[in-house]
Amino acid sequence: MTTLMLVILALWFVLLFTGAPIYALMALAGAAFIAAAGINPIAVPQKLLKAADSFPLLAAPMYILMGSLMNTSGVTERIFRFATVCVGWWKGGLCHANILGSVIFAGMSGSAVADAGGIGTIEIKAMQDAGYDTETAAAVTAASATIGPIIPPSLPMIIYGVSAEASIGDLFLGGVVPGLLMAVALMIMVRAIALRRNLPRVPFPGARDVWLAFKGAFWALLCPVVLFGGMMSGYFTATESAAVAAFYALVVGLGYGEFRVRDLPRIVLDTVETTGVMMALVMSAALLAYALSLSRLPQNFGGWLTQTVSSPIMYLILVNVILLIVGCFMEAIAAMLILIPILVPPALALGIDPIQFGVVVVLNLMIGTITPPVGIVLFVTARVANLPFAAVVRATLPFLWPLLAVLVAITFVPALTTWLPGVMR
Fold first, then answer.
1. What is the dihedral of CA 353, 359, 364, 368, to 10 degrees?
2. DSSP readout, 388-409?
3. Which of 167, 185, 221, 355 could form a disulfide with 402 if both were Cys (CB 3.0 to 4.6 A apart)?
């Protein structure tokens, strides 16, 4: 049956280039294997429904809703204003503010696309008004948006945790240090570019400016504190924190007076639409994963890997190469759902910590969101900045180096991902 699955996967890969929805192709591949192998077809709806019946996945629509509420309630503008008074007076200050704003927003949205399309809109316009060229503004925005799914809360971490049966709370904590390292690495890169190009800075803020910016953003800045405080104290789980976050975002938006209640139906509808697409991916990938397990392809591939690659470090390097290539051609969540059943068992067999492996997988695929030809964050940023896709790609490529440096660091130093979860247990 392994040969049959390989044939189906080869046809599936060819069909990917037809432009058909990837969730439909995954479901068809799984159903085709079940039909060709003579398995009872009742397994198809059973596996689809079982995948949707997941308590941790309830967090996904709540975090999506929270991001939408933040974007429409003036929160993003207040965050960027606060980031600007903090670091805007550095050389190339608005580039640094862009990165810091993404770090803060990451503690609320958990999505690279939400970051690029939400706070990114404000960041790019502010940088253009300050005299930065649009390509630089777009590049920094795209690169810093990758921090969103690494610093918790994180939608990809939830998907990974559900698929790999790993602790979502530990995955959230495991992403904190790598996310901050990404911000530092990008700021070092920006510093070098700012000195070389003599980029502008904003005037040094007075105490009144700092206070007003902090006061204006206080309730937004408190959101990550509420989430982590609640999870760490045991008041709610990582899944329940999503509902708390969505409610908190609604209250903050109403409190700022910039959120209009009449916008709520549209926001909910957008959330339902986005969740529907995500759930279609999850359900179809579960069916394909079931077919893969029946074919014993993952088991055979994992056995071959563990025999061929006996070193955990060599396996992580191999996985990095695979995922960096896959990320260029496939959307992150779809790639995770397909590859996790194949890549996780050998990693566990080699003694790799599941939290380290999860963060490595997510970071790889987030780098893929800013690499052509299918870098979704590049497309969103190009639309926001009103630039040709090719121009955004050229401007963003240098920013891959600091992100790859962080990837290398968490690959070779497991403590960067496992220390904080260990301390908080």
1. 150
2. -HHHHHHHHGGGHHHHHHHHHH
3. 185
Q: What separation in angstroms does the CA of 67 have from each of 186, 216, 253, 377, 411?
A: 23, 19, 12, 16, 30
Query: CA of 78: how far to CAs of 54, 212, 235, 267, 322, in Å?
Result: 35, 10, 28, 20, 39
For residues 377 and 126, give the distance between their C-alpha atoms in angstroms, rounded to a whole number: 19
State the residue for tokens 């790019």: 124
| pLDDT for the residue numbered 363 | 95
Amino acid letter, residue 88 = G
- What does the alpha-carbon distance between residue 30 and residue 200 come to, in Å, rounded to a whole number? 55
Would you say residue 47 has pLDDT above 70?
yes
Average pLDDT, whole number, for the chain? 82
The whole-number pLDDT of residue 108 equals 67
Q: What confidence category does residue 286 fall into, taking pLDDT thresholds of 50, 70 and 90? A: confident
CA distance linking residue 177 with residue 418, whole number of Å: 9
Give CA torsion, residues 210, 212, 218, 219, to 10 deg.
Answer: -160
Per-residue pLDDT at 407: 96
CA angle, 101 as apex, 355 and 425 as ends, to 5°? 25
User: Is the pLDDT reported for residue 68 higher than 80?
Assistant: no
Given a contact cutoff of 8 angstroms between Cβ atoms, the answer to whether 92 and 131 are in contact is: no
d(CA 313, CA 282): 30
